[in-house]
């Protein structure tokens, strides 16, 4: 088979056969397909989409491109469950959910991604923690999940390697925002992780990959139906991405906000709502609770009691990071040399979150090219929520940059990305909708 014929077939609107999809996935996994052919097919899929059957075949082939974990012999006394987000800005939820769900009796083998397009990646954020190994060997990964209850790691070369390569090429070729590609990317990792249940955080709004609410619902339905075909019980929560989640965006800054949450120092209300809704949904989907309020209370207790913080520290130490990270995170995290507040005037009424995400890339906190090294210290803190009255006392955000020039450049971008008005906007919804599939 000639790969150019596969590209041509999809370019002309055809439906790829199983053998063509397998050829693509094999070439991704063993590196034999050059990046230009991979990106051409990704663009053809982006433009002409895939049928449900093509998406399911791609998902299974990518999941099986490496090791598929099986926890049945591990002697775990709870369900193996995870959450995954379709991608947002300021989304540090994984660092909270994994230890909270573990404190509630779940086992969470969380295989996360790097930054994608304008969104940040959990793996990059985790690498802000000195010594933390995001690519442990399988034995270590299994042991940490079994003994501590959770392990947040990145994609290793063994788990869904086809997605790892495709993901890095999509990141820099404007081929991210495709329902079949997002579905296959997310589910291949989750199927390879051997989960019993999955909760999807499907983002909606100006920082989401899908351009409209309806398309986000379509994405949620695609993920739920494809997961069901692979025997993975999945539900989805549609959450708001019309503004940065929490008060920070950027790798180390988001880790610090997550640690402040675990320390119970500061739990920003929208972040708190998203974390508790997703974590409660994990307990429901995994069958550990059947009432949402009781489930949310159990998750809340795991944070306020300090149990989730303790689990995070144990996970961090087991993966090579400091064992006192939650309490002393500021001591360990890199800080940028320049910190510049950005001022506006009036009520903050709307934010172009994609532009905010792109401004993090401009600062060096995200990639423009495959394999680029990031400056993990840069980003935004003190990000004002929509509805805040901005004046000389209350900035829009504080920019953390490597140089005064970079800060000045991003100041301009941020001011363009944000709208203000003399009158306050109406309150925005954080949790839009829940969708679930067949058991
Ligand atoms: N997260 C993933 O893992 N893959 C995507 O394509 C989008 C979000």
Q: Estimate nothing, just give the exact number of structural domains.
A: 3
- SS-derived structural category: alpha/beta
CATH architecture identity of the largest domain: 3-Layer(aba) Sandwich
Beta-strand content: 5-15%
> CATH H-level name of the largest domain... which superfamily?
Nucleoside phosphorylase/phosphoribosyltransferase catalytic domain
Radius of gyration: 21 Å
CA-CA gap between termini: 39 Å
Read across the widest sheet, the strand sequence of neighbours is 1-4-5-12
Number of strands: 12
Low-pLDDT ranges:
none
Give the integer mean of the pLDDT values.
96
What small molecules are bound in this structure? uracil
- The number of helical segments is 17
Shape: globular
Helix content: 40-55%
- Using the coordinates above, name the CATH class of the largest domain: Alpha Beta
3D structure, described in words:
The protein is built from 17 helices and twelve strands. 57% of the residues are buried. It starts with a helix and ends with a strand. The mean pLDDT is 96. It is of the alpha/beta class and 439 residues long. It folds into three domains: 3-48, Transferase, Pyrimidine Nucleoside Phosphorylase, Chain C (Transferase, Pyrimidine Nucleoside Phosphorylase, Chain A, domain 3), CATH 1.20.970; 81-330, Pyrimidine Nucleoside Phosphorylase, Chain A, domain 2 (3-Layer(aba) Sandwich); 334-421, Aldehyde Oxidoreductase, domain 3. The longest helix is centred in the middle third of the chain and has 17 residues, at 213-229. β4, α10 and β5 form a beta-alpha-beta unit. Helix content is 46%, strand content 14%. The chain has a four-stranded mixed β-sheet with strand order 1-4-5-12, sandwiched between helices. A three-stranded antiparallel β-sheet has the order 6-10-8. Strands 9-7-11 form a three-stranded antiparallel β-sheet. The protein is globular. The protein binds uracil. The site of uracil (URA) has 8 residues, from α9.
């Amino acid at each position: 088979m000639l790969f150019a014929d596969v590209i041509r077939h999809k370019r002309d609107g055809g439906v790829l056969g199983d053998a063509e999809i397998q050829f693509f996935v094999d070439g991704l996994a063993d590196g034999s397909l050059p990046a230009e052919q991979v990106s051409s097919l990704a663009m053809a899929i982006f433009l002409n989409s895939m049928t449900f059957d093509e998406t399911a075949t791609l998902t299974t082939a990518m999941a099986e491109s490496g090791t598929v974990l099986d926890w049945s012999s591990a002697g775990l006394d709870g369900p193996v469950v995870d959450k995954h987000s379709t991608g947002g800005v300021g989304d540090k939820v994984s660092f909270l959910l994994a230890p909270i769900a573990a404190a509630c009796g779940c086992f969470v083998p969380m295989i996360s991604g790097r930054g994608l397009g304008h969104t940040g990646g959990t793996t990059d954020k985790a690498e802000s923690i000195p010594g933390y190994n995001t690519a442990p060997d399988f034995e270590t990964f299994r042991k940490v999940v079994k003994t501590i209850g959770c392990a947040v790691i990145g994609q290793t070369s063994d788990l869904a390697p086809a997605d790892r390569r495709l993901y890095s090429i999509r990141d820099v070729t404007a081929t991210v925002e495709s329902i079949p590609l997002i579905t296959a990317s997310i589910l291949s990792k989750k199927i390879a992780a051997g989960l019993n249940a999955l909760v999807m955080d499907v983002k909606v709004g100006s920082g989401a990959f899908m351009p409209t609410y309806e398309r986000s619902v379509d994405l949620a339905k695609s993920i739920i139906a494809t997961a069901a075909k692979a025997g993975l019980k999945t539900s989805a929560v549609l959450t708001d991405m019309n503004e940065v989640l929490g008060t920070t965006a950027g790798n180390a800054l988001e880790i610090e906000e997550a640690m402040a949450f675990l320390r119970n120092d500061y739990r920003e209300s929208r972040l708190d709502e998203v974390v508790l809704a997703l974590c409660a949904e994990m307990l429901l989907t995994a069958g550990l609770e059947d009432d949402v309020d009781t489930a949310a209370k159990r998750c809340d207790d795991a944070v306020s009691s300090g149990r989730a913080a303790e689990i995070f520290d144990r996970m961090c130490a087991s993966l090579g990071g400091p064992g006192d990270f939650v309490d002393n995170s500021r001591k360990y995290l890199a800080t940028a040399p320049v910190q510049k507040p950005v001022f506006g005037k009036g009520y903050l009424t709307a934010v172009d979150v994609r532009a905010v995400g792109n401004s993090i890339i401009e600062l060096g906190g995200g990639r423009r090219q495959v394999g680029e090294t990031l400056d993990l210290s840069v980003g935004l803190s003190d990000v004002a929520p929509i509805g805040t009255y901005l004046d000389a006392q209350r900035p829009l955000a504080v920019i953390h940059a490597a140089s005064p020039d970079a800060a000045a450049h991003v100041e301009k971008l941020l001011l363009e990305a944000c709208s203000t008005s003399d009158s306050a906007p109406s309150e925005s919804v954080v949790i839009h909708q829940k969708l679930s599939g067949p058991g």
